[in-house]
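Title: Prediction job returns without error message
Component: structure pipeline
Severity: low
Priority: P3
Assignee: unassigned

Description:
Job completed but the reporter wants confirmation the result is attached to the right record. Sequence as submitted:
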Amino acid sequence: MAVATPPAGSAQEATLRPDAVGLPGILMQAVTHIGPGIGLLGSLAFVCSFVGVAAPLVYFVALLIILSMGISLTQLARHLPSAGGFYGYVTHTVGPRAGFLTSWAYFLYDPIAGPVTVAFAGFLVEQSLKAEWNIYFPWWLAYLLITAAITAITFLGIEISAKATLVLGFLEMAIMVVLGAWGLFSPGPAGINLSPFDPSQITPGGNFFLAVVFTIGTFTGFEAVAPLAEESKNPRKLLPIAIIGAILLVGAYYLFTPWALLVGWGTNDPSGLVSAGTNVLFQLGHRFWGIGWLFVLFAILNSAMACGIAAQNATTRVYYAMARAGSFPKWFAYIHPKFRTPWNALIFQTIVMNLAFGLLVGFALGADGEFFYGGVQLTLGLIFVYWMANLGVFLYYRTQQRKAEFNVLLHLVLPAVASIALAFIFYNSVIPIQPQGTPAWWAIVIVPIWMILGVILVLFVGRTRAESQILAMEKADVELREARHHEIPS
């Protein structure tokens, strides 16, 4: 794979392809990044281990927090379309140092989202084939095959990626919803009931808040539409619709499907469901469909591949935007003249994160351990990112630039409520001591170290490069994008 060098100062440099993705593609960019298929399989038994049969209540609380954050994000997306996503938003609204530190926290999340999800899919393939037919198919081989498909699709252009996520995302959600609905037609011993929505059913002494932390991780991904702003049709209008639409769609999925699956399993047996672990959906597939359980495995592989595509597209656009603004090496800003993709950024993500990180962590913690480690790390990293975005919403609409549009509910109350909720969850997930050496323990140790290094780097950058220069370059990028899209601000 050839590494390209960007032409120096050429006026004919290739750019990302404008107006390439419409609303369906943008919506599924968010939905597939959330990964509802593999997210449900990886979280249901884990959440039940903390709260018992009341797992849908955990998903509901996570939905409310994510929805408040999504509404805040739309207030920036409608005015600041940028491939930099949160980096661009926070740079413009809070300042260059805050923008850089936000991107530093973002790197705890999106670059690993694809690898940890694909590793978990590989683990499920290995375990399922061994249990069913005593066939040994190592997780790392499945990982390499899925990663190869993700690499090919993302390198060949955003249009191909959008079509792939549209098809894969529809299939994974359809199969999972049908599996849940089947549980209502063939319920477990307790029959059809609403006990999973009853707060009194929460397991006494369970860690409700750690369950919410992990479940927030199963919702994250809606913000992945932001880095596609420069390749989207009418991003000011469509990105906010896609953000809220994805949250509501996946929220409805996470309220209905876990409830229906619990009914199908039997709400009188949450301990049995916990013991089944990630096999619970496969066991239900066996019971309902016989050999048709393979559809469940197919849905999980679809989910992992779609999530990997969406995460890779989002992450590499952020690399590209940071390089274009001068906060990253210029090498990352190269756009392939034919495919119009950030070629060098894709090479870096594929080799360093997808291959090196994904395989090494998988071998160190186990492929399933990598998934749970990633779930905690990306949630903790995103808490900081969301905090900074919420602050940016308030500051942006209180300045003279947008002061006339200031709305107390949208630009003060909702960002404040979301930030307080995230702080509460952060406290209740970090303060309880996790068993040393577990995936959650490693995440809680590594995240603070990473953020301290980021603060040191920000102080160093502040001394060696004028903040005003970074901000001026980013503002120039916005003006250039405005001219390319020929849009009138709403």
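Comment from assignee: result matches the submitted record. The two ends are 42 Å apart (CA to CA).
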